[in-house]
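User: I'm new to structure prediction. If I give you an amino acid sequence, what do you actually give back? Let's try with this one:
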Amino acid sequence: MDIVIAGAGYAGTVAANLLARKGNGLTVTVVSPHSEFVERVRLHQEIAGSGPATRPLSEMLDSRVVHRKAAVEKVGDGVVELSDGTSLDFDRMIYAVGSSATAPEGTLAVGDVEQAREAARRLRALEEGATVTVVGAGLTGIEAASEVAEQRPDVAVRLVGDELGASLGDAARRRVSEVLSSLGVEVVRGTWTTADNSDLTLWAVAAQVSDLAARSGLDTDEMGRVRVDPQLRSTSHPNVYAVGDAAAVAGTRASCQAALPQGAHAAKNVLRELRGDEPKRFSMSFVGQNVSLGRRNAVIQHAHRNDEPTRIWFGGRPGAYFKEQVCKFAATSARKGSAVAIPGPR
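Assistant: Good question. You get back a string of structure tokens that encode the predicted 3D arrangement of the chain. For your 346 residues, that looks like this:
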């Protein structure tokens, strides 16, 4: 059986490794235009110069997995067309292309590795007294602003957005605000405009989903994500599983916390089909959100099963240590081909 996995992020990598290690007689091919595994949760560190966000994909993929360095141009009936002019036949496909960060002219997207590297180069070149503006006051923006402010205390850092840490509980938001203030970050409530005259502007607004699924004829939602059934199969193409940011999985959000168990579940369902068994429904619950505030601080927000924040949170150095372990665990899970989803309501 030929398995093609589109994408080598958290979801695609964990799926490929699980299939390679547990599937006998499978040919597993990962299609990705990059030769690196990108830890998107660390891209703010890449920008600030406090740590790398990539590692060779060859270190992450099982030796039995074939990597085709190309992009998927179109998904057909049992075949994918690639950007290098070739095609691959498949019996099952796992669609894990993730999302991409697009930024307005004059800004650089925090969520894109190449733009993050360019932002790092520009940040290093800034002189004392320069101004850095981060657009987007969600967790990505908070992490980028605090990381830059900690690593470059000689520049002015502004964070622009409608609401600071909207997904966090009230107490956790207050803590984030206090830490940002202690780092010298100016929080500006409102909408960013192109009239901003910063020396470097970082775009930390929600990423976009590729139009690949829509132009391939897969059933998609209004955001371009693949519609899936409870087993994570495409509602229009049952030989295609969709996982991660590019899949419209009910009750989840874009995050490695969701992508890892989805990728593992899709791989296990492929194995079940190989044995002649019925695929199982996917179910998971969230446990919380983690936001780093530099290398020595963080806020860890506990959540109800439906991802709503509870009153429980902690921070400081223990929070920073916990956040670092979470990041390491995510990458290790992808490399080992193992991810556990806390069962949610069915």
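You can read the tokens as a compact description of the fold. Here is one thing that stands out. The mean pLDDT is 94.
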